[in-house]
Amino acid sequence: MDSALRCPVCRAGFRGTTRCSRCGADLTRLMTLLVTARHYRNKARKAICLRKFEEARALSTSAQKIHATQAGKRLCLLTSWLAYRQRALG
Fold it and tell me: Is the pLDDT of residue 4 over 80?
């Protein structure tokens, strides 16, 4: 998990648990969002392997909207370029 994430209640560093180690806030929703974004990125990578570049672009963009990361940004750029090339070359 991303160590730069913070508890939305007390801003303590996120440790990948369902309860904040400092204030005890329930972080289940945060974890669900992170897992969803990771799932979309994994599906995008699989779509690239299947040459489904437009699908990969949509999945990586959705993941980035949920949880923006540098690796996610690079995946969005790659999938956008691949989708563009596929449309351009027919």
Answer: no
